[in-house]
Amino acid sequence: MGTILPHSALHYLKFCEFEETAKIFEKECKSKGKPVPKTQSSPPADSRSLIIQKDLISSFEDGDMKVFFELWAEHVPTDIRDSDPAVQKLEFYLHIHFVIYPLKNSLGRQDKAELDERISHFRHYLETRGAALSQTTEFLPFYALPFVPNPAAHPSFQELFQDSWAPDLRKRLEKLLSLILKASATPRLLTLYNLKQTQAQLAEAEKRASCYMRRFSKMQADYHNLIGVTAELVDSLEATVSGKMISPEYLQGVCVRLFSGQMRQSAAQSIDFTRPGTASSMLRASIAAPKDVPLLPSLDYEKLKNDLMTGSDRLKALLLQALRWRLTRSLQGEQRDTVLQAYISNDLLNCCHTKQKTVLHLVKSKNEIVRQYTARLINAFASLSEGRMYLSQFPPLLKLLVDCLHTEEKDSVARENVLGALQKLSLRRVHQSTLIRQGLIGWLVDELQDSDSLSDYTLEYAVALLMNLCLRTPGKRRCTERAKHVLKVLTDLLGHENHEIRPYVNGALYSILSVPTIRLEAKEMSMEEILHCYTKEENPELNRQIEFIIKQLNSEEEPQDELESDDEEDEDGDDEEDVMEADLDKEEVLQPQPKELSGENLLTSEYLGIMTNMVKEKRRWNGPSAQSTDEPLQRPVTPRLPTAPGKCAHCPLVCVFTSVYVVFHCTDRLNAEVEFPRLWDQKSIT
Predict the structure, then answer these.
(1) Residue of 477, 408, 414, 416 lying closest to 442 (CA atoms)
(2) What is the 3-state composition of the chain as percent helix, strand, coil, each rounded to the nearest 5?
(3) What confidence score (pLDDT) does residue 112 get?
(4) Helix, strand or coil for residue 316?
């Protein structure tokens, strides 16, 4: 861009009205032996701007309304007229000046028509651009001006007819015009800056033009190809009318040409286009417009987190509810992924700040509703694979949740959600190990002892969680400490009226009976006879499971201990499908008061941020990890929707889809895959 001379810099400073800075700059230049030439101190005036300013003032003085507002609209930028309050007020008074001009400078009765025209123009202005000031006290009386027969005699308008009013308005007009129509020349420094910006914009425009040209060339080539294919197909139709047959090879060649621009040549050739409907289906799919996914506005997360920590208990509860609803009520797919990724990337729950009090600590709040709604939100996060990964970044969370199980009232909504969150988090081996060390197996067994007093939600999630923990070697060791008690509770649960829990009870029994000391306890309490009592001819599925449990009971095999290092190796093992159950939003105790904002209205009214649509690519499930077939495969999965159980002839556990996150295992993965491929593909058998 070249060297910037001192006089150019000084000119720029004066142009921007940095007077003090300009004086210091000039003084320093002089002290360094680089005085600024005086000839450049005052730039030449812009005569055109002065002419425009003179014409505007002249038409103001002459009362020439039409000429004035034509010049005003042409030379006062629209953005200034629409956004600057001072300019809007001046424009309002200018309209008043022109409407009362004939009354102040009357030349006779012939002015009646002109006065009516000006009043009509002013009325139109009041209904359009002037309507914005109708709520301002200063201008409210003037909206009656067009309807007053003699404004000069009306007390509300006396000020307008004083001799000083028009000159004062002219001074304000001159001041504004001097700012807008600056007579000084643009500094060279600013010209160079604008030139650089223009060059950057030009380069960007050329880049876009090149991209559009490539797209146009491709579109043109596709068009020519389509015309050629269409012509050939017309020839073929004419040939068929004459009785000539079209060979499959010819049709294949036409279709390959048709789709060559949309897929690789080899891929196009590998598709059997001779199958009826194949080519037409691909054509329709290629032009099908994707469904628009409505985007939820982004939020001011810093303000949200601050209010969650410092706001009133009611505000905290309303925000926790609104944030949960945004997650549970969003559309599954891109919309929900966008919401979750926004929560995680902005660290909504402060999971990444373990040394300070976080939003997660609200689960220990003194306010019952705040505790409940915090637990609901945590449970919603835990329902999604990415959410579980995010919660895992806060190691103290598991202890917080386990403490809540001990302190919350039996079967409260808060405790149900805490239990549900722990069940989902137990899909990760490292969390299983932590929960086992914290003695959760003993607590679960004690709670399940009085199963009739538990809700279905608590019962199902408690049994499923117990099963997950019992599948681990440390979990089995914990069960040996109170083996008889654990076995008694599990066998009693087999007779429970809630049949949804039976696969999980069977899984827990089958697992812990692999331990010799527990098998011994089971035999001493006549476990085999007890199990036979639960066999029913009308339920062959249950009978088959019980047979496998009895087989395990009578086994002499020694269990293989797992390595504790498996926790770290399985860190990425939670790739199960996301399921957002309806129970997350059940029994809402918090209801908004009249005129109180809640839900999405609260978020978008008080916490609106900058709109973004950044979706992080979700991890893909790559099938079960390799594991020795000598040991039963034990891996958490995320079931889909309730459906009928599937049979597998190689283990006592049927593969069941339920609303509960549960661990399944099969002693012969290869045979299961061969015998039961459909459910294997859907990840129900592991």
Answers:
(1) 477
(2) 65, 0, 35
(3) 78
(4) helix
Question: Distances in Å between the alpha carbon of 2 and those of 189, 196, 202, 462, 607?
Answer: 11, 12, 21, 76, 48
Structure letter (DSSP) for residue 608: B
How much of the chain exceeds pLDDT 90, in percent? 20
Count CB neighbours of 601 within 10 A: 12
User: Confidence class of residue 401 from pLDDT cuts 50, 70 and 90?
Assistant: very high
Residue 478 CB: number of other CB atoms within 10 A? 20
Contact 606, 648 (CB under 8 A): no
CA angle 584, 332, 678 (to 5 degrees): 100
Q: Which of 181-185, 229-233, 415-419 has the least mean pLDDT? A: 181-185
Q: How far apart are CA 36 and CA 9, in angstroms?
A: 10
Q: Tokens at residue 220, please? A: 């043109």
Give mean pLDDT, residues 168-179: 88
Residue 191 amino acid letter: T
On whether the CB atoms of residues 544 and 503 are closer than 8 A, the answer is no
Q: What HEC string does 467-528 produce? A: HHHHCCHHHHHHHHHCHHHHHHHHHHHHCCCCHHHHHHHHHHHHHHCCCHHHHHHHHHCCHH
Contact 631, 357 (CB under 8 A): no
- Cα angle 270, 275, 277 (rounded to 5 degrees) comes to 110
Sign of CA dihedral 653, 658, 662, 665: positive
Cβ pair 197, 191 in contact under 8 A: no
DSSP characters over 41-101: SSPPB-HHHHHHHHHHHHHHHHT-HHHHHHHHHHHS-HHHHHH-HHHHHHHHHHHHHHHHH
Among 267, 264, 262, smallest CA distance to 221 is for 262
Task: Report pTM.
Answer: 0.53
- Burial of 374 (C-beta count, 10 Å sphere; 0-12/13-18/19+): buried
Please check whether residue 542 is in contact with residue 535, taking contact to mean a CB–CB distance below 8 angstroms: yes
Provide the β-strand partners of residue 663: 636
Task: Pull the structure tokens for residue 271.
Answer: 């598709």
pLDDT tier, 222 (very low <50, low <70, confident <90, very high otherwise) = confident
Instruction: Name residues whose C-beta falls within 8 Å of residue 323's C-beta, 6 or more positions apart in sequence.
Output: 304, 343, 348, 377, 603
Q: Which residue bears the tokens 């991890």?
A: 619
Report the run of H or E that residue 665 belongs to, with start and end: strand 662-666
Sorted by sequence, the CB contacts under 8 Å of residue 333 that are 6+ apart come out as 293
Count of C-beta atoms within a 10 Å radius of residue 250: 12
Which residue, 631, 643, 638, 620, is CA-closest to 669? 631
Q: 501 near 466, Cβ under 8 Å? A: no
Q: Distance (Å, rounded) from C-alpha 453 to C-alpha 458?
A: 10
Buried b (16+ CB within 10 A) or exposed e, 336-358: bbbbbbbbbebbbbbbeeeeeeb
